[in-house]
Design a protein that fits this description.
heterodimer, A: 133 residues, mainly alpha, B: 281 residues, 4% strand, cell membrane (chain B), TSUP (chain B), transport (chain B)
C-alpha cells in the first residue's frame, strides 16, 4: 500500500516535470512566432524610413492576399508591414493550437475538446473576415 | 512620416507597459490618443487598437516562457464565450455610426474607472474561503499561484462559472465592437464574479485578450480598417512595452496601481463620451 503511494507520487512528479517541459516548449514556439512577426514589421518600417515611399498611392492599402503577396515580391514597405501585422494576428491562434497539444499530452480530453472548439471558432472568424471582403 | 512613426512607437511603448500592468489591452490607451490627440477617424483607430491588443498579449508571452499566474483552463473555457462575442462585435462595428462608437467607448472607460474605484474602496485584495461551485470543480478551474509581493503560494477557488461565462460573452462583444481587449470586463468576470485573485485574473485576462482580439482582427484586417503606417509602429512599441510591463507587474501592489490609473481613465472616458456629442474639452 505504502509502496503504491510512493510510485504514484513518483509518477506525479514525473508528469509534472513533463508538463513543465511542454509548457516551456510552447513558450519557445510562441516567442519565435512573436519575434518573427516583429522582425517583419520592423523591416517594413525601416524600408519605409529609408526609401520614404509606401509603395502605394496615398490612402491606398494592400488588403487582399493577392495584393499583399504581389507587394511583398516587389518589396513594397506597406505590403511587408501588412504581412508582419497578419503574422502578429496569428500568434494567439498559434497559442491555442499548441495548447491543444499540451492538453492532449496531459491526457485531459475535456480540455482537448474545449480548446479545439475555440480554434474552430477562430478559423470561422477568419473565414468571415476573408469572405466578407 | 518618420516623426509620426517615432511618436507612435513611443505611444506604443507607454500603452504596452500600462496595458500589461493593468491587464487591459492597451486599446483603451491607444484609441483615445489616436482619436483625441491625433485626429484619426475612430474606425481606423479601432483597427490599430485591435492590433495593439494582440501585441500587448503576445509581448507578455515573450517576457515569460511560462507564466505561473496564468490559469490556462479558465482561459480556454471562457474563450469559447469571448471569441463568439468578438466575431459578432466586429461585424456590428461596420453597421454603427462613429458617434455611437465614441459614446460607447466613453461609457466603457467611465465604467472601468468607477469599477476600479469601487474595488479600491472595498479595500480587501485577496478573498480567501470561496465556495467553488460544482461546475468549476468539474471543469478543473481551481488553481494556485506564487505571489512575489507577499512571498508565498496562494491557492484559490473559482465560483459562479455561469455568471463569469455570460459576462465573457459581453466582454467579447465589446472587444470586437470597439477594438479593445476588454480586459477590464474580463478581470471583472474573473475577479469580481468568479472570485479569482487579482493577479491570476490579470495574467489570464492578458492571454485571453490576444485570442479574443485575433477572432475579430482578421475581420478588420481584410476590410481595410488596419492602416499599416499606424498599426505597425504601434505594434512594435507595444511588444517591447508589454514585455517590460509584465516584468514590473509582479513586484507592484495592486492598490498602488489602481490609484495611479483611475483618474486618468475617468478623464479620458469623459472626453470620449463628449466627443460622441461633438463637445471637446
Amino acid at each position: 500500500m505504502a509502496q503504491n503511494k510512493k510510485t504514484e507520487l513518483a509518477e506525479d512528479t514525473k508528469k509534472m516535470e513533463e508538463m513543465n517541459q511542454i509548457e516551456l516548449i510552447i513558450g519557445q514556439v510562441l516567442r519565435i512566432g512573436v519575434i518573427i512577426s516583429a522582425a517583419v514589421i520592423l523591416i517594413g518600417i525601416l524600408l519605409l524610413a529609408v526609401t520614404g515611399k509606401t509603395g502605394y498611392a496615398p490612402n491606398v492599402y494592400p488588403i487582399t492576399v493577392k495584393s499583399i503577396t504581389a507587394g511583398i515580391l516587389a518589396l513594397k514597405p506597406f505590403a511587408i508591414m501588412m504581412l508582419g501585422l497578419f503574422l502578429l494576428i496569428l500568434t494567439p491562434v498559434l497559442r491555442v493550437a499548441v495548447s491543444i497539444y499540451a492538453f492532449a499530452k496531459e491526457k485531459d480530453h475535456l480540455y482537448v475538446w474545449i480548446t479545439t472548439f475555440v480554434l474552430v471558432i477562430l478559423l470561422i472568424g477568419m473565414g468571415i473576415g476573408y469572405l466578407g471582403k | 512620416m518618420i516623426n509620426t512613426i517615432m511618436l507612435l512607437i513611443v505611444v506604443g511603448l507607454a500603452a504596452g507597459i500600462f496595458g500589461a500592468i493593468f491587464g487591459i489591452g492597451g486599446g483603451m490607451i491607444v484609441t483615445p490618443i489616436l482619436t483625441l490627440a491625433m485626429g484619426l477617424d475612430i474606425k481606423y483607430a479601432i483597427g490599430a487598437s485591435i492590433i495593439s491588443v494582440i501585441a500587448t498579449s503576445s509581448g507578455a508571452t515573450v517576457a515569460y516562457l511560462k507564466d505561473d499566474m496564468l490559469n490556462l483552463r479558465v482561459a480556454m473555457f471562457l474563450e469559447i464565450a469571448t471569441t463568439i462575442g468578438a466575431i459578432a462585435g466586429a461585424i456590428l462595428t461596420g453597421l454603427l455610426p462613429s458617434a455611437v462608437l465614441y459614446i460607447l467607448f466613453g461609457l466603457l472607460l467611465l465604467f472601468s474607472a468607477w469599477n476600479m474605484y469601487r474595488k479600491m474602496r472595498s479595500g480587501k485584495e485577496t478573498t480567501d474561503k470561496i465556495q467553488p461551485d460544482s461546475l468549476s470543480t468539474k471543469l478543473k478551474l481551481n488553481g494556485s499561484y506564487y505571489d512575489n509581493a507577499v512571498d508565498k503560494r496562494i491557492d484559490y477557488q473559482v465560483a459562479n462559472v455561469p455568471g463569469g461565462f455570460t459576462m465573457m460573452l459581453g466582454a467579447g462583444l465589446a472587444s470586437g465592437l470597439l477594438g479593445i481587449g476588454s480586459g477590464a470586463f474580463k478581470v471583472i468576470a474573473m475577479d469580481t464574479i468568479m472570485k479569482m485573485p487579482l493577479k491570476p485574473s490579470s495574467a489570464t485576462s492578458n492571454l485571453m485578450m490576444g485570442v479574443t482580439a485575433a477572432a475579430s482582427a482578421t475581420v478588420y484586417f481584410f476590410n481595410g480598417s488596419i492602416q499599416p503606417e499606424i498599426a505597425a509602429p504601434l505594434a512594435i512599441g507595444i511588444l517591447v512595452g508589454a514585455a517590460i510591463g509584465s516584468k514590473i507587474m509582479k513586484h507592484l501592489r495592486a492598490r498602488v496601481l489602481r490609484m495611479i490609473f483611475i483618474p486618468i481613465l475617468f478623464y479620458i472616458g469623459l472626453q470620449m463620451f463628449l466627443k460622441g456629442f461633438g463637445v471637446t474639452i
